[in-house]
Amino acid sequence: MTDSTGSPEPTGSAGSADSADPVTASAAEAVLSGLGDIRESLESFYKDLHQHPELGFQEHRTAGHVAQALNESDYEVTEEVGQTGVIGVLHNGDGPTVLLRADMDALPVREQTGLPYASTATGTDSDGVEHPVMHACGHDVHVTCLLGAARLLASRTDAWQGTLVVLFQPNEENGSGARAMVDDGLAQRIPRPDVALGQHVLPAPAGCVLTRPGVMMAASDSLRVTLHGRGAHGSMPERAIDPVVLAAMVVVRLQTVVAREISATTPAVVTVGSIRAGSGPNIIPDTAELQLNIRSFDEEARTRVLAAVRRIVTSECAASGADRDPEFETLSEFSVTDNDEEATSRIAAAFEASFGQDRALTVGLVPASEDFGELPAGLGCPSSYWGLGGIDPDTYRKAERAGTVDKDIPSNHSSRFAPVVQPTLDMGVRALVTASLAWLAPRPKGR
Q: Which residues make Cβ contacts (< 8 Å) with residue 318, sequence separation at least 6?
């Protein structure tokens, strides 16, 4: 998940008692009866994974442990899909095919959680720069929960029928891991899913799950913009076209895109996250570089904001008398995460039947972004993606009462982001099992 701009707020029950699904709940109870037997091993696996994070397309250790665990549960395992992705397939008679997905990569962040199992790992990025590395987005939770669900479903094949595909994806953070797996022949490597499902741990109370039909997460476009000026001595600005002043004007003017060109009822964000220019106080440089991030929730707003950004940057360069046009480079692109209405309704009903209305909640729009949608798009199937609470409930409620959630509850990508081990892992396993059984649980005739 790329960086969020705030904490997602639970907004109430996900459904009604009339829509609850007792068939799925019964099958889930049978499969999850073994959760207590594997809880300790899952917790140990999670802490080990948290201590050994790996950057995108470098998840070799993680992928190796995943493949080993799937082999031990008799899955048909395929490794190195989309570089470091792992797929497990378990056939269990006639029935639907369900794909469950987890992402594996970590972030270039120095951990400051103070946990006894905190990461001290480092990694080298694609530009050859070494960074401290941390599972600051909770992908270690995702991997652990999916392995737990895979293990339990393999141990109780009497409770379901069909085919289960578990997919462990690399490099979600840069938005290219899902596409890499699709481009590496994913559709030819697995049975065509009837539905693709996934979850993401969020800064919400642990023990709850959060669904939303339709658009849930934002589209994201990250750009690098190079502004060309003309360098000179700092004492002779009249001989220069100062790219630092130009960059400052661009940054200020870009703030008007959302404020003055987008309707107040249309969510959008334009952020300049990085400015790089110059090497000394008395040297006017030749160039300045900006890195921008744009968030939007529909294609019309996305197109309009991107066009406005290019127009403003180009016009400010012309106004400054720049000899060269600016250069635009796309760093990453994420489409909106758009949940299929029917699939999400089915999952919400299953969650409510299994967890109750106080833990099966809905969530508002989440301004973070995901590349999960590339998988169902490439496979031609519906999909649904939900949130998983990861914050100690008492800590969250205390901050909520004080109105300090934004300050006191670390979000994804924070160096202090640390989902509590329990009940986060238990609920993550339960959610994946329950959601998959909304398709795989045997149905009485006529259902």
A: none
Q: Distance between CA 198 and CA 166 in Å, rounded?
A: 10
Q: How many residues would you count in the chain? A: 447
Q: How far apart are CA 262 and CA 270, in angstroms?
A: 11
CA-nearest of 78, 73, 75, 105 to 169 is: 105
For residue 294, the cross-strand partners are 221, 270
For residue 248, what are its two tokens? Answer: 């400052």
CA angle 361, 366, 368 (to 5 degrees): 140
CA–CA separation, 36 and 41 (whole Å)? 10
Average pLDDT over residues 286-291: 98
Residue (of 103, 59, 52, 66) closest to 84 by Cα position: 59
For the ranges 22-26, 32-36, 67-71, 327-331, the lowest mean pLDDT is seen at 22-26
Contacts of residue 202, Cβ cutoff 8 Å, sequence gap at least 6:
7, 8, 210, 363, 366, 387, 388, 389, 390, 412
- Farthest-apart Cα atoms in the chain, separation: 85
Residues 6+ apart with CB under 8 A from 45: 65, 69, 144, 147
Which pair of structure tokens corresponds to residue 363?
């969530």
Burial of 267 (0-12, 13-18, 19+ CB in 10 A): middle
**Higher confidence at residue 20 or residue 337?**
337
**pLDDT value at residue 16:** 46
Q: Output the pTM of the full model.
A: 0.92
Residue with tokens 């259902």, as numbered in its chain? 447
